[in-house]
Amino acid sequence: MGLRVYNTLSGAKEEFVPLEPGKVKMYVCGVTVYDHCHIGHARANVVFDMIYRYLRHRGFAVTYVRNYTDIDDKIINRANREGVPYNVISERFIGEFDHDMAALGLDLPTHQPKATDNIPEIIAIVEKLIAGGYAYQAEGDVYYCVEKFASYLKLSKRNLEEMQAGARIEVGEKKRHPMDFALWKEAKPGEPFWESPWGRGRPGWHIECSAMSMKYLGETFDIHGGGKDLIFPHHENEIAQSEAANGKPFVKYWLHNGFVNINAEKMSKSLGNFFTIKEVLDKYDREVLRFFLLSAHYRSPIDFSDQNLTEAEAGLERIYKAIGAVEAALAGGGGGGDSAGARELAEKAAGLPVRFAEAMDDDFNTAQALGHVFELVRAVNRVLAETAVSRDILLAVQESIRGAGAVLGLFTSSPDEFTARLKSRKAADLPVAVEEIERLIEERKAARAAKDYRRGDEIRDQLLALNIVLLDSPQGTSWKVK
């Protein structure tokens, strides 16, 4: 069975068959660049980075477009508050977004267009919609007429009449129907503007994504993605304007990631229960955050909490310790007979790529895929503690775990590097320097070698009183913060 994806448009899992064999065209809505990105942005971008990676892993040539909305009311309002041009704000937060995405280990998309670089393309689509009777000019504004598009709301499965009953036209709006939406906005005094057939103004939010996706991917493409919050109105309106302009289907597969909850409550800026990516990465390693975000299926809600991040850190640490044990065994030269444990480990190592692919082919089920990685990790810990294993088996284990990690953007460091990052982060709040901890560990090692076990226990207890736990293993003594 091949790759299957859940299509929001059909409401079902479908076999993934791209429009052009061997090639995938994918567009994902980017951010409006007026502020720092929060954990919800992290989830959406990590999810579609994972999808991008897996499609390439499967052999597809992927053209991935992710835009910047660099003109918007929020950008203008912030620029006015700070007394600077709008593009000072947008360029600042494009830089901040790029920094955050690099910190999360995202691969760069093929194209990252800005709305303001595509004004001619936007105007051309609006002109087509007016000519086709799907849009109308109201003084300096242009609106899309939703009643003209017979399949409006087919993505969100809503009812236009019911929505109309609860909607109203706001003061100052010139639209004919409460659900009509702006394609072009007349510039207010002091606002940035571009010249158009309808006067000076700027594009509406929805039209820019139609223009940029069609410019780079064509009038019909394979995948359009984003958070569930974009299904209505943004993606619904993209479909309406794009299909009305072109007379053909806009997107074959619509993919949407689930919401992030904060301590079991829906994240919302209005509630003040949101965290920026920078705030989270001040507390947790970048790979821990990525591991946490991929530990649930991308369509499911995920609960962000310190407890869940701590559990994710512990899980990732277990995987790195298994990788370290394999590397230590390889450094020792490997070797061993044909034991039952060795055969089991060889079987699980060979089976991981198959089971991993089966999980990922089932609508990118990263939770199940990581579960299969943990199965191999448990076997590594058990078998290597009991018996020696041949070099070929050790290399197969290493390749299987690292191969899964490459698709997920995980396990990219050496175990020593990962451990050092965790120690450095946690040691910042300790009442003792890392160098002193390492010195005491060396002193304890010397005391134990001299059979001075009392002194060794004193050092262990001294560090434990500082919340530092010593971990003895055949490879030596390591430590962690309690």
The CATH architecture term of the largest domain is 3-Layer(aba) Sandwich
CATH topology of the largest domain: Rossmann fold
How is the largest sheet built, in terms of strand order? 4-3-9-10
What level of helicity do the residues show? Answer: 40-55%
User: What is the averaged pLDDT score?
Assistant: 94
Number of domains: 3
Number of strands: 15
Count of DSSP-assigned helices: 16
| Structural class estimated from helices and strands | alpha/beta
- Enumerate the spans where pLDDT stays under 50 for 5 or more consecutive residues: none
- CATH class designation of the largest domain: Alpha Beta
For the largest beta-sheet, the strand count, sense and barrel status come to: 4 strands, parallel
**Basic shape:** elongated
Pfam families: CysS_C, DALR_2, tRNA-synt_1e
Keywords: Aminoacyl-tRNA synthetase, ATP-binding, Cytoplasm, Ligase, Metal-binding, Nucleotide-binding, Protein biosynthesis, Zinc
Binding site for ATP: 269
Family: Belongs to the class-I aminoacyl-tRNA synthetase family.
Features of the shown structure:
four-stranded parallel sheet, four-stranded antiparallel sheet, Four Helix Bundle (Hemerythrin (Met), subunit A), Rossmann fold, alpha/beta, elongated, 482 residues
Give an overview in words.
One of its GO terms (molecular function) is ligase activity. With 482 residues, this protein is α/β, with parallel strands linked by helices. The chain folds into 3 domains: 4-266, HUPs (Rossmann fold); 305-414, Up-down Bundle (Four Helix Bundle (Hemerythrin (Met), subunit A)), CATH 1.20.120.640; 430-481, no CATH class. The chain is 50% helix and 16% strand. The protein contains 16 helices and 15 strands. It has helices at residues 39-57, 73-82, 86-103, 119-131, 160-165, 205-217, 231-246, 277-283, 286-294, 306-331, 340-361, 366-386, 391-408, 415-427, 434-449, 453-464, and strands at 4-7, 12-15, 23-32, 61-69, 135-138, 141-144, 181-186, 201-203, 221-227, 251-257, 260-262, 265-266, 302-304, 468-473, 476-481. Strands 4-3-9-10 form a 4-stranded parallel β-sheet, sandwiched between helices. Helix 9 packs across helix 10, helix 10 packs antiparallel against helix 14 (415-427) and helix 12 packs antiparallel against helix 13 (391-408). The longest helix is centred in the middle third of the chain and has 26 residues, at 306-331. The protein starts with a strand and ends with a strand. 39% of the residues are buried.
